[in-house]
Amino acid sequence: MVKLRLKRCGRKQRAIYRIVAIDVRSRREGKDLRKVGFYDPMKNKTYLNVPLILYFLEKGAQPTGTVQNLLNKAEVFKELPPNQPNQMKFN
């Protein structure tokens, strides 16, 4: 199973997170399948590769809680087709 998860990067006390598609059995800093964006909590900036994220969501990838919140803020779930069986529109 594939998840959209945060992967920690950056220096001590200056964390930056990559949003990656990764196998569930991998550890946090393990090898990822694809990088789909990044999140900088210090500057509150987010970059998302929306077409790639939608591709993984349509194939059944599950976002973690934090990634889910970031995608909700960016309104990514509104771009999913309405007849998607695994819609995750939690408000």
TrEMBL record:
InterPro entries: Ribosomal_bS16, Ribosomal_bS16_CS, Ribosomal_bS16_dom_sf
Keywords: Chloroplast, Plastid, Ribonucleoprotein, Ribosomal protein
Compartment(s): Plastid, Chloroplast
A single MF term (Gene Ontology): structural constituent of ribosome
Cross-referenced Gene3D superfamilies: 3.30.1320.10
PROSITE patterns linked: RIBOSOMAL_S16
One GO biological process term: mitochondrial translation
One cellular-component annotation, GO: chloroplast
Pfam families named among the record's database cross-references: Ribosomal_S16
UniProt-listed NCBIfam families: S16 (TIGR00002)
Family: Belongs to the bacterial ribosomal protein bS16 family.
UniProt protein name: Small ribosomal subunit protein bS16c
Organism: Pogostemon cablin
Classification of source organism: Eukaryota, Viridiplantae, Streptophyta, Embryophyta, Tracheophyta
Gene coding for it: rps16
